[in-house]
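Hi everyone,

Forwarding the result from last night's run.
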Amino acid sequence: MASSSDTAAVRGFIPPQNDEERRLMRRVEELCRVAQNRGIPRYTGFLSDREQILAEAACHKASFEEFRFWGGYEGAERKVLCLEPADAWQEEPLAYLQMLAASGGDKLPGHRDYLGSILGLGLDRACLGDLLCDPKDAASCYAVVLADKQDFIASELTSAGKCPVRVSPCEQLPEHLYQGEERALKEATVSSLRADAVLAAMMHTSRTKAADYIAAGRVEINHLPLRAAHEPAYARDIFTVRGVGRYQLAEIGGKSRKDRVFISFFQY
């Protein structure tokens, strides 16, 4: 690649787009005030990538800098905002569960089965972090959850999909779940940094097909709807295509002799 994304433009902060996002920011600001005034740690539920961006902006707006995001392991996608004033007592907001499906007979449950079954217990999505299926044991899946929901899920979750499941608390996640090989970067060239051109390259399809996905409302960038094919893409943007998958535009490089732009990307 001709140059790195260190000099490429990145997408700036996008203000809250709806009432739900505005409520999140107000709630985080209030938690910051409580943590600061009372000197006690405060925690949110699990936040998506987009919610983490809004939460960080709310912390800065409240002039509260003693915060971190933690999802139970390095590289987690869904994370809890931890507001922890200096010298305050600390608590562990997260816990871990192992879910072991009965083998034989019905098809073993996958990520969607476990997610649906846990949410079917009446829990909000914010109670649940990442779900990690064990590549060494197809019958085993691990979940990062809010600590105060660990016992409830362990006692109430008895099945996922069509399989009986045995759930037990565990002290930590097996390291091999999150210390595997890094995602392989792929390279391509695009005629421009229009969203449809970048998406087409990442999906190995035509720009017409990529534009059709966008027009159908099936594409999000950083958890916000992509409304037009001509919108620009930026380094580190995450594209979510409903029913297809997720991609990240990792780097934007220089231009080729034919005036095409070099990009690097990977698929989740």
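The longest strand covers residues 245-255.

Cheers,
N.
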